[in-house]
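Much of the work behind modern protein science is quiet bookkeeping, done one molecule at a time. The protein below has been through that process, and both of its lines are reproduced in full.


***
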Amino acid sequence: MNETFSPPIDAPTADTRRAPLLPRWLLAAVCLVLAFGFLDARGIWDPDEGRYTNIALTMLDRGEWLTPMRNLETGHWTKPPGAYWLIAASVSAFGETAWAARLPIALSYLACVLLAAGCARRLAPGSGRLAALIYATCLLPAGAAQLITADYPLAAAQALAMYAFVRYRFADAGAGAAARGAWLPAMWAAFALGFMIKGPPALLPLLAVAALGALAPGPSGAWRWHVLGAALFAALALPWYLTMGLRHEGLMEYFLGAEVVDRVATDRFGRHPEWYGWLKIYLPTLLLGTLPWTGELLRWARALPARVRAWRERQARAEQAGALLLALWIALPLLVFCLAQSRLPLYLLPTFLPLAVAMAATRHARGRGVPDLRWLLLWALLLLGLRYAAAQWDTHKDASEWAQAIRARSAAPVEEVLFVEDMARYGLRLHLGAEVEKLSRQPREQPRFNPEYDEPLRRELEHAGDAPGSVFVAKQALWPPLRQQIAGYGYRAQALGEPYRGRVIFRVERAPPAAPPPLRE
């Protein structure tokens, strides 16, 4: 039996529920423009975009795609390499440009649009096109569509996994057991892709899958397909972790301790760990991120308590399995994010796909479809305008501006930029073609994995401090004592031009030997 989304009690009758649809060509045009409009209008922004592109380009330079490295000396172990692989592949194919670096993010956005439509067609028949439109034009998904992080590839992998589950659980009437069951290994393969992008958080939608199986059991015999799928997941997702664990003693303990347990249970990373942090971060993310469709979100949320009461009955859960899955898909990951001590707005990005489906189902059940096209086009133009304004924003985060400033001050080609106790601008790797390092003034005790500094200043000076291709950057307030410190090491620091954004850009060369004292007659 084909189970579908059950509309609200006060929904219009089937005879009157004829919501206007957006023409496919116009929907496609809106999505393509929002995906690719101004894709390279701004430079790479640090720290996030710079870090991802830097690691991807370092992989290409080294010809070694397994070990994420922020430069030739220091590994970067906060995430598995899936997102870096996507960026590196795009840059390798299309050149070292901001457009190529952002292309995987734009494609992930388009994939989520298509998968929102696919899920809605099964969970809320008749609302597929509307769900695609809602997802494509929500402020957060559209705004994040050109921001280089792991969150959009993760969202696309999770969406693909849940689409495969929906195809299994809500298969067409008459679908054969083999054709239906084959979607479960596909689900596990997609989760493996997400696991290679961001690790354990990729598996959060499995909470909804397991909960639905307990509350509204599906077809019998699914366990065989899950066993096959779990084996496929292990074959795809675990080899990299095992390989790196064998190469780097203690790395698995670091992954599980710092990157999983500490992010969930401690305030180690200082990302809004207060007891009210979830309210401060996630409530605005949901209310503002779903604009201009926030009204539909509130209608869905307002109707949810009555549905939950109805779901106490087994028959109601079976009849409304689609609605139940949506509620679980939204609520369970959101609960985990609220309980975790590390909280950022983009953590909720994967949740916006089931939110879009739920909002589309709510609007469709009320007999409402696409709003006035003039209003829709104005909103799309506003989103593009915001994107253009961001590109014109004068910000210290723009690595392309830093690259111009360094080029203007350096007569020789720049091969290495060394930041002394300052934020490393890793976006320079793409815009300047230079390796980037962060130096401490003195030796420091640092963790073995993901240290803050690459090496002390003196060691860098001894290795290649006076190389003509090396340029240093330090804050103006640090410049006088730093210059004196460098002189004490037997080198001379020379500022290159005027300071830039409160920083002194300088070169270092060996100091000439002191002249012998004049002979006395």
Remarks:
- Confidence is low (pLDDT under 50) at residues 1-17.
- The first helix runs from residue 24 to 36.
- The chain has 22 helices and six strands.
- The first strand starts at residue 416 and ends at 420.
